[in-house]
Design a protein that fits this description.
The complex is a heterodimer of chains A (about 120) and B (about 160).
Chain A: H1 2-26, H2 30-56, H3 59-89, E1 100-101
Helix pairs in contact in A: 1-2, 2-3
Chain B: H1 2-20, H2 25-42, H3 49-81, E1 90-95, H4 101-113, E2 117-122, E3 128-133, H5 139-158
Antiparallel strand pairs in B: 1-3, 2-3
Helix pairs in contact in B: 1-2, 3-5, 4-5
Classes of the chains: A mainly alpha (about 120), B mainly alpha (about 160).
């Protein structure tokens, strides 16, 4: 029974990481790639870590697994946010199928300020 | 008062773990829940009851978040496998009700963690959060989803 759980968790986790890798190649622009890779890999590595916790079943391993998952969930979005912000800032093009861009023209290129309304037009 | 009840709760949990002499993770959780129930029963003061509403909300929030995470991952997986031609990505400005640092940090982190959405930046006056989304069917519906889903639940916990 426990073997089935371990196998199930590890397989699903590896599948998600594999899909993230495929998505990294297939997606057309930076932002879509960020969307696919960073998040799928958090769930994927989380599931693999969980399967490791079930496999060992010791206190030390379980608490460390929980700590690792917690820190992954804390740090990954910060990195993703910074990469996305910088790539928007240096003018990485959005994919041609993008339907709306409400951020356009709201950055002040000199002071790095971001306005909520269209104050820049004055 | 909230924090003192929490400390009591932790203290009772530690007592439970020491007395049972079984320091596994499951026993810690069980001790916490047991002492939570005991504190809930013995507290008569009405002002302290906020804590007892808080803990179920936090647990419900974690479950809700896991559900969203899995759902959004499956959606992202679908687009990776099938095709990205039907995707409708875009950047949407979501008006913020969250005001303090911790609320905004939580919200942006959670939005980034669910696949398909990526928080890009918060405006300097803290009124708008700019979110990049993989697939926007309807702009108003998307904004409503974020506001009623994550933001409302976070504000329920922090306020």
């Amino acid at each position: 029974m426990i073997d089935i759980i371990i196998g199930f968790l590890a397989t699903i986790g590896v599948m998600f990481i594999f899909l993230a890798a495929v998505g990294f190649i297939r997606m057309p622009d930076t932002y879509l790639r960020m969307c696919v890779t960073t998040k799928a890999s958090t769930l994927g590595s989380g599931l693999i870590l969980l399967s490791a916790a079930v496999f060992f079943g010791e206190n030390g391993v379980i608490s460390r697994v929980i700590a690792i998952i917690l820190f992954l969930f804390l740090t990954v979005p910060v990195g993703a946010h910074l990469i996305a912000r910088v790539s928007y800032f240096i003018g990485v093009q959005l994919w041609k199928g993008t339907i709306m861009d409400e951020l356009k023209g709201k950055y002040d290129k000199q002071s790095h300020e971001l306005h909520s309304e269209r104050e820049l037009k004055k | 008062m909230k924090s003192s009840i929490f400390l009591n709760n932790v203290l009772l949990m530690l007592m439970w773990v020491i007395l049972t002499g079984d320091s596994t993770f499951a026993n810690f959780t069980f001790g916490f829940l047991l002492s939570f129930v005991i504190l809930r029963i013995i507290t008569v003061n009405r002002e302290d009851t906020k804590y007892f509403r808080l803990v179920p909300r936090v647990i419900a929030f974690i479950l809700f978040f896991i559900y969203e995470l899995v759902l959004a991952n499956l959606q992202a997986a679908y687009f990776v496998i099938v095709s990205h031609k039907n995707l409708k990505p875009g950047i949407v400005g979501v008006p913020l009700d969250a005001k303090s640092d911790i609320e905004i940090t939580f919200l942006t982190n959670l939005v980034s963690l669910t696949p398909g959405t990526l928080s890009i930046d918060v405006s300097n006056d803290r009124k708008v959060l700019y979110v990049y989304s993989m697939h926007i069917k309807d702009r108003d519906q998307f904004v409503k989803n974020i506001k009623n889903g994550f933001e409302k639940r976070i504000l329920n916990i922090t306020r």
